[in-house]
Amino acid sequence: MPRSLMKRRLARAAVTACCAAGLAITQAVPAHAKTVKVRFDYAHLWKTPEFKTTATGRITFKVETCNRAGQKMTVLLQRTSGFNHDIATRTIKCSAGQTATFQNVARATYEFELGKLDDGKHFQGLASYTFTG
User: Fold this and answer.
1) For the chain, how long is the longest CA-to-CA vector?
2) What DSSP element (H or E) covers 84?
3) Cβ(110)–Cβ(59) under 8 Å?
4) How far is CA 55 from CA 29, 43, 79, 109, in A?
5) How many Cβ atoms from other residues are within 10 Å of residue 100's Cβ?
6) In Å, what is the CA distance from 8 to each residue of 12, 20, 83, 117?
7) pLDDT per residue over 6-25, tens digit each?
8) E strands in 1-133
9) 117: enclosing H helix or E strand
10) d(CA 118, CA 128)
11) Distance in angstroms between the alpha carbons of the first and the last residue of the chain
12) Could you report the per-residue pLDDT of 38-58, keeping only the tens digit for each?
């Protein structure tokens, strides 16, 4: 193969690759994190409002304040679109700054269910959850 023909083919391939990369970047939909704050008050179980993710990603639940600092609580992530099922559960302390993180969660509609021992004591506080919305 003549050298000039090889140079032209390489140049053409480079231009095509650059154009394809530029097109992919401009057509990609940026994913934005959305944060929702909620107040909770429960003696045994409590569910957050449903929320819809727009892309596969991470979902994080964070305790902002709690009247029972240091007490254990469970954070269950449930999928509510399609077939309802539990994704995963994390046990954290009901203390400011404690987080439950769920990785590689598919695009769907979800809710959190907070739980604790049914001992008659109420957990009250503020939390936030962040997801791709």
Assistant:
1) 86
2) none
3) yes
4) 10, 33, 14, 11
5) 23
6) 6, 18, 54, 72
7) 556 655 655 554 544 444 44
8) 33-42, 45-47, 51-52, 57-66, 72-79, 85-93, 99-105, 109-115, 123-132
9) none
10) 23
11) 53
12) 999 999 999 999 999 999 999
Count CA atoms closer than 13 A to 96's CA, side-chain side: 3
Which of helix, strand or coil describes residue 23?
helix
Query: Against a cut of 0.85, is the pTM above it?
Result: no
Helical H segments across 28-121, by residue range = none
Amino acid (one-letter) located at 122: H
Cα distance between residue 56 and residue 25, in whole Å: 18
Rounded distance, CA 34 to CA 16, Å?
36
Whether 113 and 84 have beta carbons less than 8 Å apart is answered as: no
| Dist CA 103 CA 51 (whole Å) | 16
Amino acid letter at 87?
I
> In sequence order, which residues have a C-beta less than 8 Å from that of residue 25 and are 6 or more positions away?
none
